[in-house]
Specification:
Blueprint: E1 6-10, E2 16-18, E3 22-28, H1 34-37, E4 41-52, E5 61-67, E6 70-78, E7 81-85, E8 90-93, E9 98-102, E10 107-113, H2 115-120, E11 122-132, E12 143-147, E13 154-156, E14 162-168, E15 170-171, E16 174-175, E17 184-191, E18 196-200, E19 206-218, E20 222-224, E21 229-232, E22 238-254, E23 262-264, E24 267-269, H3 272-283
Antiparallel strand pairs: 1-21, 2-3, 3-4, 4-11, 5-10, 6-9, 6-11, 7-8, 7-10, 9-12, 13-14, 14-17, 15-16, 17-22, 18-22, 19-20, 19-21, 19-22, 23-24
């Protein structure tokens, strides 16, 4: 099986605060024009390990804000984040958990440091990815998938030199619990020093990986360091990894959505008219209301 060639290796944008509770680096779409190169993935914000002091009166986070036309996927490695939305969903994302929220036709939500975590302070380590929705599903009703650590299956690699947690899509004979509106493979990979993994992705799928911690050799001889993102060409079906130290890697692969894309703030649609309608609907209160937070 032919290996995918590496198109580029890059770092994320300078760190910035999202609200007052999440210190992130944006890898795309800010790095280069990813509207088509990483479709159906539109955005990746990475929050590396960062220690927040305890708070007494207020929790850090992001207040009420809208989304339409895509899905948000939040992966927790350390810390705890509370969520609630205008569709009546709420929950806490603990280490190992994943929250997969379909904004669809429109939703309001909050994202905050969970109360106990906020009172004690501690290290936060998170990831959020936006997955675009095909045109026919842009206005689908909002949906919420709380994927706990226990619900996410994992494959132990040969020699017990690592595990691959399958969030969505599949790896070998293991299928992830997340449902999506277009084919998406999302793997949380943990390799021990010397551990190896062979990953498969159809030639036509847009594919990338991010080394969160550690260092790996990609396709046998390309050294990729911590916080490097690798974008692959659409010219093969496999990616080989070998860790030179204990490593955590996020692997993304998905079928491109070959449709026009227009982005404005928290809205990802197919036309300017649809963006204007989203703004009008939000201003008119059609995204619902938020009840008492967690």
């Amino acid at each position: 099986m032919k290996m995918k060639s590496i198109e580029s290796i890059f770092k994320g944008a300078p760190f910035h605060m999202v609200g007052d509770g999440f210190k992130v680096s944006n890898y795309f779409p800010s790095a280069i024009d990813f509207n088509k190169r990483m479709s159906p993935f539109f955005l990746l914000d990475y929050h590396p390990p960062f220690k927040y002091p305890a708070t007494t009166n207020e929790r850090r986070g992001v207040g009420p804000h809208p989304h339409r036309g895509f899905e948000t996927v939040t992966i927790a490695y350390e810390g705890a984040v509370a969520h609630h939305d205008s569709a009546g969903n709420s929950g806490i994302i603990y280490p190992g958990d994943v929250q997969w929220m379909t904004a669809g036709g429109g939703i309001l939500h909050n994202e905050y440091h969970e109360k106990a975590f906020a009172r004690a302070g501690g290290v936060m380590h998170m990831m959020q990815i936006w997955v675009n929705l095909p045109k026919k599903y842009k206005l689908t009703p909002p949906k919420y998938q709380a994927l706990t650590k226990q619900a996410i299956p994992e494959v132990t690699l040969p020699g017990k030199n690592g595990v691959i947690r399958v969030i969505s899509g599949s790896y070998e004979n293991c299928t992830g619990p997340a449902s999506s509106f277009s084919p998406v493979h999302m793997l949380d990979i943990r390799l021990k020093d010397g551990g190896e993994a062979a990953l498969h992705s159809p030639k036509s799928y847009n594919t990338a990986l991010l080394v969160l911690q550690g260092q790996v050799a990609v396709n046998e001889n390309i050294a990729v360091k911590e916080r490097d993102c690798v974008l692959f060409k659409n010219n093969g079906e496999s990616v080989l990894l070998k860790a030179s130290k204990d490593s955590t890697i996020l692997f993304l692969s998905g079928e491109p959505i070959e449709e026009p894309l227009v982005h404005y703030g928290p809205f990802v649609m197919n036309s300017v008219d649809e963006i204007n309608q989203a703004v009008d609907d939000f201003n008119a209160g059609r995204f619902g209301t938020l009840k008492e937070e967690l």
